[in-house]
């Protein structure tokens, strides 16, 4: 673990000791009375509650109200017409095609795709090979963007998803990240999408497998451009105030959304209070953002913030930390908390130092308001503490995208009982310590030698899969050389661990880290390039080269093989150019 990630602030113990549950638990109880649809009146009351608390403490804050595309589901109906009439309980996800309550009908076809076996599978792309042209497709899982897009591409008339549980989970089915632009508007779902619960879904599946089934269905969504709140508190640093750490979470919810994300909103509020109380010890600034549009706009609020303040983020953001679903019932371990490899050290060290626990994670998913990868900002944490896997198995639960593993996630059951006072207190301390370390560490707590090692490992894996059909050897050597350069850089600046934040040598070293992040994060997490936003489906490591993993399965000389080789050639150029640019940054720094 890099020494930059194990640095501890001398005031950290005092800051975490100052954390109490008075303000955060009051917020959780207040939010249990508010169904916070994006841009809705109840959400406005939630924002006003937070503003009132910040104002009482004197914490500076700004409320933005951008007009963004929001889609709030209102009603879904589903009926079997033949061979036997039956009405089923159904919901429709956000951004599904609204039929304004009118009925359509069609033949039902069952296409098995399976339930998600892990949280990572919820956000994966989907491959549908069945002929579903003109049919209403019944399949398993959450109505995820990847599956909906794949079914639409295959010509499905509509899609019906079988929930993994008896509660139907709310969600959003568009692949568009944030509000659309000219490049993404064409990806807006063009078919109605519905979801049914597990038992009725199985009945419908068995019926479809036994013979011809006709169904009729309707959806109604309240969709349009509307103002939504983006509230940002800023606690200015005393030494280098223009540089900042961004801590954020969403305020909108499905139903009361206590575990997702009232507990997160409470964590942000208490972190703002204790850091303001200790602001004289803050070297760089901390911005704490509550944004709407997460649930009903596919991260519309955070995407708008990334767009509106792109230059400031590019030049000054040290790193960002997402806060979603902390402090939930039975969430006693830290697994699947996620981090970029350069931030793994600080992410694990904070959890260990504050809670005494080890943690596990890995590559961040394309989810959770990770709206800053295209700019090139490093990040750690997406979710927080969670239930142990043996408890999940004991309770016969299935993977969810939040609520600490509770299957109340995105349902009417996500109420006050999902929050846990002791767990919330613990998790607030984790976030407060993480933000303090990131803001006060003389050298940014990042390790790009770890990124180079990750790149080399990824490239070697792709090379092994491609075999002799494509050569990544020079890219592997570039990654290996970058790792050596980065290691020399960190060795050279090791003596700055106790230097002042405004030491010119520290500033130069951190500018190197900033430039490395802006180069390396985009080539590892994006395809679309800087200041754009990739689709809301999971992005593999070094995505421009990921098709190498499938090259050997294609017939040499076929069109698919030729096209893939051309794609890989261009991807290799992008990756090698990025690696060389990163090495040049280090060379200019004397590494």
From TrEMBL:
Signal peptide positions are none
Which Pfam family, any one of them, does this sequence belong to? Answer: Peptidase_M28
Give start and end of each Peptidase M28 domain. 232-426
The UniProt transmembrane annotation reads none
Task: Return the InterPro entries for the record.
Answer: PA_dom_sf, Peptidase_M28, Peptidase_M28B
Q: Which domain of life is it from?
A: Bacteria
What is the name of this protein?
Answer: M28 family peptidase
Q: To which species is this protein native? A: Candidatus Segetimicrobium genomatis
Source taxonomy: Bacteria, Bacillati, Candidatus Sysuimicrobiota, Candidatus Sysuimicrobiia, Candidatus Sysuimicrobiales
């Amino acid at each position: 673990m890099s020494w930059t990630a194990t640095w501890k602030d001398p005031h950290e113990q005092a800051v975490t000791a100052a954390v109490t549950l008075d303000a955060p638990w009051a917020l959780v109880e207040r939010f249990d009375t508010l169904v916070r649809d994006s841009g809705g009146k109840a959400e406005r009351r939630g924002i006003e509650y937070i503003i009132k608390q910040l104002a009482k403490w004197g914490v500076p804050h700004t409320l933005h109200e951008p007009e963004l595309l929001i889609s709030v589901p209102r009603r879904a109906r589903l009926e079997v017409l033949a061979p036997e009439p039956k009405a089923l309980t159904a919901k429709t996800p956000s951004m599904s095609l609204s039929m304004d309550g009118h009925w359509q009908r069609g033949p039902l076809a069952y296409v098995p795709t399976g339930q998600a076996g892990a949280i990572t599978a919820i956000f994966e792309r989907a491959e549908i090979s069945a002929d579903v042209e003109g049919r209403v497709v019944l399949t398993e899982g959450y109505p995820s963007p990847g599956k909906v897009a794949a079914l639409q591409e295959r010509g499905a008339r509509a899609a019906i998803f079988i929930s993994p549980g008896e509660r139907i989970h709310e969600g959003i089915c568009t692949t568009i990240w944030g509000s659309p632009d000219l490049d993404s508007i064409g990806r807006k779902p063009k078919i109605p999408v519905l979801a049914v619960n597990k038992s009725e879904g199985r009945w419908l599946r068995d019926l479809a497998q036994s013979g011809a089934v006709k169904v009729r269905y309707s959806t109604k969504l309240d969709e349009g451009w509307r103002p939504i709140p983006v509230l940002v508190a800023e606690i200015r640093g005393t030494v280098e105030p223009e540089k900042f750490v961004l801590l954020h979470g969403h305020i909108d919810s499905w139903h009361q959304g206590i575990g997702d994300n009232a507990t997160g909103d409470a964590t942000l509020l208490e972190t703002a209070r204790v850091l303001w109380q200790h602001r004289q010890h803050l070297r760089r600034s901390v911005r704490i953002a509550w944004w709407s549009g997460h649930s009903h706009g596919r991260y519309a609020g955070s995407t708008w913030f990334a767009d509106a303040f792109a230059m400031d983020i590019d030049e000054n953001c040290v790193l960002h930390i997402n806060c979603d679903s902390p402090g939930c019932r039975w969430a006693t371990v830290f697994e699947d908390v996620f981090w970029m490899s350069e931030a793994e050290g600080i992410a694990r060290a904070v959890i260990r130092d504050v809670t005494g626990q080890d943690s596990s994670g890995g590559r961040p998913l394309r989810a959770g308001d990770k709206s800053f990868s295209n700019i090139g900002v490093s990040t750690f944490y997406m979710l927080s503490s969670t239930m142990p896997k043996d408890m999940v198995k004991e309770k016969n639960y299935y993977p969810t995208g939040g609520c600490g593993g509770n299957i109340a996630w995105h349902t009417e059951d996500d109420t006050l009982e999902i929050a846990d006072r002791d767990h919330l207190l613990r998790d607030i301390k984790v976030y407060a310590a993480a933000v303090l370390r990131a803001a006060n560490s003389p050298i940014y707590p990042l390790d790009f030698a770890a990124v180079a090692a990750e790149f080399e490992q990824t490239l070697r894996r792709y090379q092994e899969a491609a075999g002799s059909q494509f050569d990544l050897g020079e890219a592997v050597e570039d990654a290996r050389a970058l790792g050596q350069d980065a290691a020399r850089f960190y060795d050279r600046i090791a003596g700055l661990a106790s230097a002042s934040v405004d030491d010119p040598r520290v500033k130069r070293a951190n500018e190197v880290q900033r430039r490395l992040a802006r180069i390396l994060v985009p080539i590892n997490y994006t395809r679309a390039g800087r200041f754009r936003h990739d689709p809301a489906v999971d992005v593999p490591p070094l995505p421009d080269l990921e098709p190498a993993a499938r090259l050997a399965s294609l017939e040499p000389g076929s069109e698919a093989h030729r096209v893939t080789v051309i794609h890989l050639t261009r991807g290799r150029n992008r990756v090698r150019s990025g690696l060389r640019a990163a090495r040049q940054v280090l060379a200019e720094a004397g590494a």
